[in-house]
Amino acid sequence: YLAMDPAEQSDYPRLVERLSQLDKQIDNPANYIYYLSTPPLLYGVVPQHLKHVGLNSEEGGALRRIVIEKPFGYDLASALELNEIYRSAFQEHQLYRIDHFLGKETVQDIMALRFANGIFEPLWNRNYIDRVEITAVENMGIESRGGFYDQTGALRDMVQNHLAQLVALTAMEPPVQFNADLFRNEVVKVYQSFRPMSDDEVRRRVIRGQYTEGEWRGELHRAYREEDKVAGDSRTETFVAMKLYIDNWRWQGVPFYIRTGKMMPTKVTEIVVHFKPTPHKMFTSLDGGTVPNQLIIRIQPDEGISLKFAAKVPGSGFEVKKVSMNFTYDQLGGLASGDAYSRLLEDCMLGDSTLFTRSDAVEMSWRFFDPILRLWQEDDFPLYGYPAGTWGPKQSDLIIERDHSWTNPCRNLTNSELYCEL
């Protein structure tokens, strides 16, 4: 342990001395991993100070890696500036931008589900899939993070990184081999294919909201603007819903709906793939409608996968009902799925950067989302209120096309009826 001020360059020679002492004690060949679990304002400072005292150099065979927590910039300009600082102090293979979402077993299982099963990949395209929903919501407010969150908001905190990555994993092409470079190349290609939105399209396809006071489960929850360290007139969003398109051969014309929010009815992160209905309606459901197929990938909680399909109701007639085949990770046995950060930090120690975000992916993601943030700065862009404990502003329903609606998940994946209106 060494007490120092990481913002002060003059303190870093003491770090060099302390590390040298530890190397001798534990017979370490000067291999170091730096973990920037610091306030974001130091993200561009620490790498330069490490370089100043030579702690970035891998001369002589030493391993030097730096783990960087999100946010990877607050907009495109700051992301480009940070990337330039990192590249001036470290090489790309030394940079490990950590995002715990990519360390979750179920996130990685998206790739296994798609690329290790012959029954899914032939259907994974615009010919058979109608739309894709990705939801990541929490049933809590900002807790004691008002000072941070009011400067950040839901788009920076969740959409530009977590949800964009889930879109990329769902939509990416299979890499020729599963290694860090080829896998991350395919992620970047998805970001490059995001269809840019005009200002008018942003206003029609992007809904932002902020939770207001509401009674939920017998308790009165205060509004976001009443939280500690939040401005009384804050226009920071706690909810974002968006419709985006991926302009490539596989996904042309298929809408991807993504949403995230605080103070929602439950805590859940999942992907719902809606397949197109059968071309000819031979059977009717009990309510007279159709029973389209759905594939649900639950990332948290109750990690697992559920496939929804139609089965005939026993007895006379040919009515069908939606049923499900469910798999949860606890059925596999063996090692527990474990903590996502632990998995990623172990990968860093092993030198495997597959599940870490590369510089070009950060830049391409920001090129898509930065115009949205700039438009939000205009006073006339609406910020809708929604009572705590609800599924967000009603205006978010308007971005869903045709007769569809958002899929509101219940908590337990193993329920016989997976979805409900809360």
List the strand order in the largest sheet.
11-14-13-12-10-4-9-8-5-15
Number of E-state strands: 15
Helix content: 25-40%
Count of individual helical segments: 10
Mean pLDDT value:
87
Structural class: alpha/beta
The shape, in one word, is: globular
H-E order: HEHEHEHEHHHHEEEEEEEEEEHHE
Q: What can you tell me about this protein's structure?
A:
With 422 residues, this protein is an alpha/beta fold. It is 28% helix and 22% strand. It contains 10 helices and 15 strands. The strands form 3 sheets. The protein has a 10-stranded mixed sheet. Strands 1-2-3 form a 3-stranded parallel sheet, covered by helices on one side. Strands 6-7 form a two-stranded antiparallel ribbon. Strand 2, helix 3 and strand 3 (95-98) form a beta-alpha-beta unit. The radius of gyration is 23 Å and the shape is globular.
Write a brief structural summary.
With 422 residues, the chain is an alpha/beta fold. It is 28% helix and 22% strand.
Write the layout of secondary structure elements.
Elements: H1 12-26, E1 32-36, H2 46-52, E2 64-69, H3 76-89, E3 95-98, H4 105-115, E4 129-137, H5 146-149, H6 153-171, H7 180-193, H8 199-205, E5 206-212, E6 214-216, E7 219-221, E8 239-245, E9 255-261, E10 268-275, E11 284-285, E12 294-300, E13 304-312, E14 319-328, H9 340-350, H10 359-376, E15 384-387
Parallel strand pairs: 1-2, 2-3, 4-9, 5-15, 11-14
Antiparallel strand pairs: 4-10, 5-8, 6-7, 8-9, 10-12, 12-13, 13-14
Helix pairs in contact: 2-3, 3-10, 6-7, 6-10, 7-10
